[in-house]
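Milestone M4 deliverable, item 7.
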Amino acid sequence: MTLATWLRAHGGAAHTSELSAAGFGKKAIAEEVRSGRMLRRRRSWIALPDADPAILAAISAGGRLTCVSAARHLGLWVPPSDGAVHVAVSPTAARFDASGLRVHWTRGPVPTSPRALVDPLVTVLRHVAHCQERVDALAIWESAIRKGLADSAELTRVRWRSTPATELASVSSSLSDSGLETHFVHLMRGHGVRVRQQVLIDGRRVDGLIGDCLIVQLDGFAHHSSAIDRRRDIEADARLRLRGYTVLRFDYVQILFHPGEVAEVVLMAMAQGLHRAAQPARDQEIRPRSGATRRHRPDLGRNS
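Output delivered:
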């Protein structure tokens, strides 16, 4: 196996002690660096030129990728980035260039190898709990659970020694199908509205069901990449309407950047009783003998 092949199989970078243990000699490594086929960082780290830039930034600072940068590296849902690379360093670390970095000094719940490129997932989640807005942190935690990288029951048993992480462990679940869904459920919970998730209706699962008849569908950033996707959603929405449901559809930008407008639309739909199944005729309209029309006022105190 060549050095490049080995590095590519191990995250794109490694400490020279690991390379030596794998059978690569100092002279061979030095020649790869001189030829430009490899990069050297902080004397003892060797990396591929096309390695993840975030990984290169982390090892250049003598640390590991963590928090949202590690979550993105692991393929988890993450909120829009400010461009900073989140790096975990030793509490005694010094003499490194912190420009462009968000430095995390706190140790995680589990021991970590000083040669690791990325923090363990449990440590990543702890940093996320302290660094991110609660709803964004919850979305990342639930993304890890959804992808099978974490288990909600196991997370509740971790000794976090952190109030934010302990609280997130108690509420995170695998119900949300995406980070957007986590945001929406959190938004509605703040208004006292219960959302049932991933309910099977007409042979397909819907993102959210409020009450009996109000369906909410959420379109991710990459959704509707083709006319076929859009047509399929239009057909599904039409079928749901014919079955007596009201369908509200929101996209990525609305959920993340205009949550107040989303909540206003949903609450107005509920005020109109669109979340309830059809009521008996006597509850919908009563006609006194005088001929005047009097409508029964819906009870807006219940939301499911």
